[in-house]
Amino acid sequence: MSVAVVTGAGRGLGLQTARTLAQRGHSIVAIDVDADGAADTAAAVGGRGFGCDVADRDAVREVAEQVGPVDVLVNNAGIWRFGPLLDLGREDVIDVVNVNLLGTLWCVQAFVPGMAGRGGSVINLSSGAARMHSPGTGVYPTTKNAIEALTVQLAVELGPLGVRVNAVAPGSILTEATAKILSESDRAERERTIPASRMGRPEDIADAIAYLASDAAEYVTGQTLYVDGGLTSGKVTAR
User: Fold this and answer.
1) DSSP labels, 106-157
2) Which one of 27, 58, 76, 171 counts the least CB within 10 Å of its CB?
């Protein structure tokens, strides 16, 4: 059975990704900085759960040693610290870079060597924010641009090992967290500007990840798939 690691699996997109991959026959390794969240996800999908901060390179390697060889790695863990760039504190910048960018690299370094010669798929999470820059979003968009560049470089370096590397960039997704902070009018206004006429669902992102993890995408590598209802193609101004 294929083994799939999902980071940031305790809630939101990570939780749905773990569910979707499990439904498609993968054995799930759920990793989250919240150990209880990782354990809950693992219990829900019949997998294994590990509490781990992906920004801690040594901790990630310890988990990889316990897990053993894997076939799929989904680097979903990510954080943000919003604010004007001129006002950002040192720790806020370091935290976002450490989790979003370096955390992705540490997971690749820890889990990919076990894929060599067996083949495997790595899916990194970018964001629509990599294309649509807004004031006050800190270095979050910068890290997502870096993820896309890292994805291409990894695809080139890891291709000879039989490992494919791609990224998925979600647009405006209605998760449990966003549902709590968006009023009905805010949601309606946001949906009015999206060509697909709705916000995305976690399932939309998980399905895209599952495709890139599957044999159906065996000739796809070095790509970033934007799953955003057309939002980054241009906002709708009238209905």
Assistant:
1) HHHHHHGGGGTTT-EEEEEE--GGGTS--TTBTTHHHHHHHHHHHHHHHHHH
2) 58
